[in-house]
Amino acid sequence: MRTRLVVGNWKMNNTVTESVAAVETFVQHVDAKSSVDVVICPPYLAIPRLRDLLRNTHIKVGAQDVFWAESGAFTGKVSAKMLDEFCVSHVIVGHSETRGRFGKLETPENTLGYFAESGATINLKISALLYRAMSPILCVGETASEREAGQTEAVIRTQLEEALTGLDAAELYGTVLAYEPVWAIGTGNTCDSAEAQRVCKFIRGVVGELFDEHVASELRILYGGSVKSSNSRELFSQPDIDGGLVGGASLDPTEFSLIVMSA
Ligand code: PGA
Predict the structure, then answer these.
(1) Which residues are catalytic?
(2) What is the model's pTM?
């Protein structure tokens, strides 16, 4: 039996003061006895305060990214060792924004040079997290043009193979996957629940092929991309969707608590 999981990805939103206020409101709204696992991924700076605030709740604190080396001359980067000190439980890796594959650019520059996460770097990040017993949340998903070209399955299969190469089945028990179609992120164009289910089932099948059926059946697979309280219940009721990775809607504590309750 897979426990439902709802993850809030705040991205580059909320100062520390705003983060504290949002979490205080969220905790008041969400059911303390809920059997749903909840992770909030704030900006790095807010992690220590949120860890203290959430210490006696069932809500965990995650991070939005990590660098794979433990320490060294890597200006601006944060390692798994540093996150571990603050009891970070989950870390997002391979998000389409950090892959440099924004579905829709708001700035004319190519973002690839700023982020440039690849299958190989994602694989290094996952290994660094597993070494520290933290759970990676690995995002996979196709762009609109890849979908139109009929490449959805091939793109996702390659992303999974590259990210999970060299891992053994036992290491996957702590790992979470998220199907995030790039065209659905931040656009309001949520993937139809039947199609999201079809792709999540495909992802489970690929993991079964790459590792084994048991690990695939235990793996939590989330859907992400314009999840809101008005569509979350239907998405989360699909047999292969075990919860959601929520961006924009997780910034509103009332809306986020409704999404958690729908799981
Ligand atoms: P969104 O973002 O919910 O704002 O579409 C999801 C994500 O980027 O994980």
Answers:
(1) 95, 180
(2) 0.94
